[in-house]
Design goal:
Helix content is 73%, strand content 0%. It has 196 residues and is an all-alpha fold. Helix 1 crosses helix 2, helix 2 crosses helix 3 (41-57) and helix 4 (68-87) crosses helix 7 (148-155). It is elongated.
């Protein structure tokens, strides 16, 4: 955090390279958050870029007693929530889900890799059905391991509201996951059964 404050203070004095260092340091977590919330790489890139632009323009308002990472992810979360509300009017089709998904592991087993990819795509699809703020809470909790207090601070909610949203979202996701798994299992059995 002290390192962040050093770069922030240099950026406030007009050193553009100092802010560039902050961008390099946080571009992966910001992009990852945007990707999880928006569901595709192009929108995530645009959202991450816009988040950094907004952070740069509002750097003077940053409270240096807070975590810069939390403040930056808060900007990204709110931007993504706004984008999701705007596009909520459109319906999302199955074809719009990207075939490739971001994974942190390399697997030499193609079948295992395909199943992992299918699971990632399913998770992203299920996340798309959550309300924007609920999705933000879930992403911050399970991908960034934020505490309920940190999520409340990031999303400007009470801790009890965060707990309630996480509980509802977990139930919704679990029910949808089980339903999707059951459907996939039935399809696999149908395709694997011998034709007479």
């Amino acid at each position: 955090m002290n390192e962040d404050l050093r770069w922030i203070n240099q950026a406030l004095k007009g050193d553009e390279n100092a802010f560039g260092i902050l961008v390099e340091q946080y571009q992966k977590p910001v992009f990852s958050l945007c990707y999880r919330m928006l569901g595709n790489a192009k929108d995530a890139e645009d959202a991450a870029q816009e988040s950094f632009i907004r952070a740069y323009h509002h750097l003077k308002k940053f409270d240096q007693t807070r975590s810069f990472a939390t403040w930056l992810l808060s900007i990204a979360s709110h931007y993504c929530i706004d984008r999701m509300r705007k596009r909520r009017l459109e319906t999302v089709s199955m074809e719009s889900i990207p075939a490739e998904v971001i994974t942190d592991h390399k697997s030499p087993n193609p079948e295992k890799e395909l199943r992992a990819s299918e699971s990632e795509a399913l998770i992203q699809f299920l996340l798309d059905d959550l309300k924007p703020i609920d999705r933000a809470a879930v992403v911050l909790r399970y991908w960034y391991e934020y505490s309920e207090v940190e999520i409340a601070d990031t999303l400007n909610l009470s801790v009890s509201a965060v707990k309630s949203r996480l509980y509802r979202s977990r139930r919704t996701l679990a029910d949808a996951w089980l339903s999707a798994e059951k459907s996939t299992s039935i399809k696999r059995r149908h395709h694997e059964s011998p034709a007479f």
